[in-house]
Amino acid sequence: xxxxxxxxxxxxxxxxxxxxxxxxxxxxxxxxxxxxxxxxxxxxxxxxxxxxxxxxxxxxxxxxxxxxxxxxxxxxxxxxxxxxxxxxxxxxxxxxxxxxxxxxxxxxxxxxxxxxxxxxxxxxxxxxxxxxxxxxxxxxxxxxxxxxxxxxxxxxxxxxxxxxxxxxxxxxxxxxxxxxxxxxxxxxxxxxxxxxxxxxxxxxxxxxxxx
Length: 211
Fold this sequence. Notes:
This protein is an alpha/beta fold. The chain has helices at residues 35-42, 137-143, 159-169, 190-200, and strands at 10-15, 48-54, 75-78, 81-84, 110-114, 148-154, 173-182, 204-206.
């Protein structure tokens, strides 16, 4: 696969393939680690490869532990709307925040940290959850004249979904690599709904074998 060179205007975006989102992590997604092999086969063929990381301070607004009386998957009102609460995850500098060791990082040219502010969560690779504060990814890609994004990573129905949604809104052509994503799927059916919505909004859903 690595010999299949992609066009110069194409980039691969790897979303949050971190230890805490893989089996054994604090917010584990079933088989999250399984996608690394697929991504490793694809990434060397892309002229631009970006990987994102959740990179939260210990007092992050999304952690249920920072809201007395609340449990993970409760929600609280915040300045930018409702915030879903999660177990502590991807805390800056911890093992959980590191990329899963199965991911070959050599092709990655940019590691983008998101959710770095204690008062603002970030699902999308492009914008924080206020939908206004940019992460800088759009500017980086436009400087490199990228117009077509292939997106993979974790989780299909959360950070991948919001990244795809924003990429489409910003005018990129987007393909989701279905065998290189994994989802939370809570409630059941969320992954299929996310894929259907992304497809309806203009994304292409394909497999690595078809690339």
